[in-house]
Every structure is written in structure tokens, then in C-alpha cells.
DNA sequence: GCGAACTGGGTACAGTGTTCGCAATATCCG
DNA sequence: CGGATATTGCGAACACTGTACCCAGTTCGC
């Protein structure tokens, strides 16, 4: 019975009723994976590494999951589960703002999450619940499905794209094994070439003025600024 | 002389002046990588695979590049090079629309590109040229650097996020070795569970109505719809 | 001509996901 | 109660991956 003949992850019972009780659970596997991804990056999440974290044999994991990909799905759904208990404001604009900020905060907490979430949709219970919740702000305004999805898609595309590029340098620094400062120094080596060449006047101006203080909260401000623009754009297209 | 002591990719001369002439070029390496990525996916791009494509030894590639990551940078910059020759409309709104559409078309042509581009910034000549070009639409309106970057960041975050989720299922289908239809069928198995549970009324409604025709150009329409919203949001925040 | 700089490439190593096979164990059914 | 059956844990093995190290061969500057 090849793995392909089995039903997909979320339609499969977690374990059978016949044999010995499993020593672990899907939940434990997901948590182990998340712990590794948070501290060592998504690339460090390997079957052997997870098994070691659980203190079990490597191939025993295939009793809980049919492919590594399914572990990633478990991890993704588990992370979305952190948002359980969220209640949204009544005003659609406030609700969408809340959704966007929660998505971003989750991504900041788990830098590897956007890479997973931007992939195919997750059908885990937490993810389905979250999707349902993100559809609710549009209840009042009566929109067709197309307009609804266009609005929600615009918002989530923006958030996803933003957080992804937002943490690019942090991830890059970790992957290369350098500290953030070391990495910034290496990237900074390009500065003179760019600014000295004279071929990129606009880029040069941006680089010079970007050196100004308040760099710490700049990402926050950019995100909020972008969010307001997206919300304004959505509002402008309401019937 | 470890690789880490050498200057970063774009500050290093492509080859020395002393020894034998190299049998290939960075350009050829990038093209080989792109060819593989386009036809077999980004995961298929390995040092051995590229070397085979070029008809050279695997470790000879390290004469052109110090890490595999640098090959990915070469590939990214090469793809951006396809946009050389672009001339933008005078009106800032038309210009941004053109930029967004070109980014999307490039992503559709090279599905692996967004995953690279959403990472750390590329400092290759084509990428720098493109960045400079994307800054130009704001020349007329006199904006501070912060507003300028907020506007451009909003647009590119949206485009990046959109194309990434846009092609998620295609990539997922290829990775699992199934045809697109087969994959859709497997995903469709979740339908009854979701709609039958009664816990997701809004999601159910969306799924039912999404079955309507015109599925083919739905992505196009969603992208255009989102783009107009983003542009409207940017316009709303101009001084 | 000679040393220094440079290129090509084979070998080796530590890691990856996953398949197969087998022993141990728990439940269901007669 | 006694098998038959389903299920679990897991070691061995396979075909991959990126790249450090080494050495021979080539070409330029002096």
C-alpha cells in the first residue's frame, strides 16, 4: 500500500484502533518541528532532527505522516492555532486591520511560516477556522464572491509579500551563519559601488536618506503605511 | 583562502587575468540554471545537474561562484535582465501598472523566481537597473523617501504575495509528481468534509460559487482587481 | 625561462527523504 | 480463550545533496 493510495492528511484518522498505542501524537511532531524551525531555521527541520527531538527512531515518524511535506502542513496548522480565541471588531475596516496585524505578528514569531503559508492552502482545522474568520468582516457589506475574494486576496497578498521581504535579511544572515551586523557589513560593501557609479541617482538618494535614525521601527511604519493604503484601496472599490 | 574571505559576488572580477581562459562564463552558468529551473523546478537545480548541463565537472563550478547561493543570485539577475528595454508611461499610475504587470509576467514565465526575489535584495547590474526604474515613476510627485518607499513597497509586496500564492498549486502539483488535474482531484477530496461539517458557512458559500465558469482567467481578474485597489490606495495617500 | 596565478576536476564526507522488511504488540472476532 | 489481523517502532540501505581539499595542467607577467 503505497503512500499515494492513502487518503490525504486531514481525512486520515490520526491512528488505527487495532495495534499498539502510538508513543507520540501528530501534535507532538508538529511542536517538535516548530521548535526546531524557530531556533535553527526551516532547513534544519529534517526527519532525523525531529526524531531526535522526540527521542524516537527516524523512520517511526512515517507512522504519523506519509511524507515530510505533511509534517510541514501540521506545523503550519499548529501555528495558525495560536490565533484561536481572536475576536474581531465589528467595523470591517478595523477587522481587516486586526487580521493583517495578527498575520504579521505570527510571521514575526515564526519567520519560516510565510514560506509555508504562501504555498498551497492548508486544510487543517485551525487553518479552516482562520479562513472562515477572515471571511466574516465582509458579512455586512453585501458583495459577490468575486469582489469578496478580490478584497481579501489583496489584503493577504500584501501582508504575505511584506513580511516575506521584511525578514529576508534576517533569514539570510542566519543561513550564512553570520550575525546580523556581520551580514549588514557584507551587504554594505555594495554601497560604494552603487553610489559611486552614478548610474543609479534615485537609488543613491534613497540609500543616503535611509541611513537616518529610527531604523528600528521603520519596518513597523512601512507596514502600517502600506496597510492603510490597501484598506483605502478596498474602501474605494466598495459598491 | 576560504570562500568567506573573498569579496561578495558582484564586486569580484568574473575571472583573473593570469591563468588559462575559463571554459565557461557566469552568464552560461546562470542560463543553464534557469533552463533547469524552468523545466524541472528549482529543486532540480543542483551543482551536479548544472555541471552536467554545461558538460563540465561538478566542482569546476566553484571557479565561477563560491557557493550555490551565488548561482541563484546570478539566475535572479539574469531573469530581471529580460525586462531590459522597458520604457514606462509618463503617468505615474500607468507606470506602476506596467511595473506590476511586468513583474507578474516574469513570475509566470519563471515560477521559481518569486521565491528567490522575495529573499534578500539582488545587487546584480540588471536588478539595480530595475530598482532604479521602479523608482522613476515618483519623480514628478515630490515625496519624501519614506512615503516613496511606502508606496513602492506596498505595490511590490502585493505583486510578490499575489504571484506566489497564485502559482502555489501548480508548483505543488509538480513537486508531488502529479498532473494538475490529479492534484486538484486530491485537493477536492477535502470539499465534502468542509462543506458537510457545517462549521464553515462562509467558506462553503465561497467554494460553491467558485465552481462557476471562467476559472481560467480568474487569476488574471483577481490580480487586476487587486492592482487597481492598491493603486487607488496609493493615490489616496498622495500629498 | 621561471615563478605566480589560475582553471579543471576527482575524491571524500556528512547530510538529506524515503522504501523495505521484520519483530513486537494490541485489538477484534469466533 | 485463541488465533487472525492490524498497527507500531525502527534499523539498513539507496540515491541524492553541497562543498572542502587536493593535485595536475595551463597561461601570463616579469
Layout of helices and strands, plus pairs?
The structure is a homodimer of 239-residue chains.
Chain A: H1 26-40, H2 47-54, H3 68-80, H4 92-109, H5 113-117, H6 125-135, H7 145-166, H8 168-175, H9 180-188, H10 190-197, H11 201-209, H12 218-236
The structure holds a DNA duplex (30 and 30 nucleotides).
What report would you give on this structure?
Two copies of one chain form a homodimer. Chain A has 239 residues and is mainly alpha-helical. Chain A has two domains: 3-81, Homeodomain-like (Arc Repressor Mutant, subunit A), CATH 1.10.10; 84-236, Orthogonal Bundle (Tetracycline Repressor, domain 2). Helix content of chain A is 61%, strand content 0%. The first copy, chain A, contains twelve helices and no strands. Chain A is flat, with a radius of gyration of 22 Å. The termini of chain A are far apart. Chains A and B meet through α6, α7, α8, α10 and α11 of A and α6, α7, α8, α10 and α11 of B. Chain B binds a DNA duplex (30 and 30 nucleotides) through residues 2-3, 15-23, 46-48, 51, 56-60, 62-63, 67-68.
State the order of secondary-structure elements of chain A, H for helix, E for strand.
Answer: HHHHHHHHHHHH
Which pair of chains has the greatest number of interface residues, and how are they split between the two chains?
Answer: A-B, 70 and 70 residues
Count of folded domains of chain A: 2
Task: Please name the CATH topology of the largest domain in chain A.
Answer: Tetracycline Repressor, domain 2
Please, what is the average pLDDT of chain A?
A: 89
Within CATH, the superfamily of the largest domain in chain A carries the name: Tetracycline Repressor, domain 2
Largest sheet of chain A: none
Helix coverage percent of residues of chain A?
55-70%
Do you know the CATH architecture of the largest domain in chain A?
Orthogonal Bundle
pLDDT < 50 stretches of chain A: none
Number of helices of chain A: 12
Question: What's the CATH first level of the largest domain in chain A?
Answer: Mainly Alpha
The percentage of residues in β strands of chain A lies in under 5%
Radius of gyration of chain A: 22 Å
How many DSSP-defined strands of chain A? 0
Oligomer: homodimer
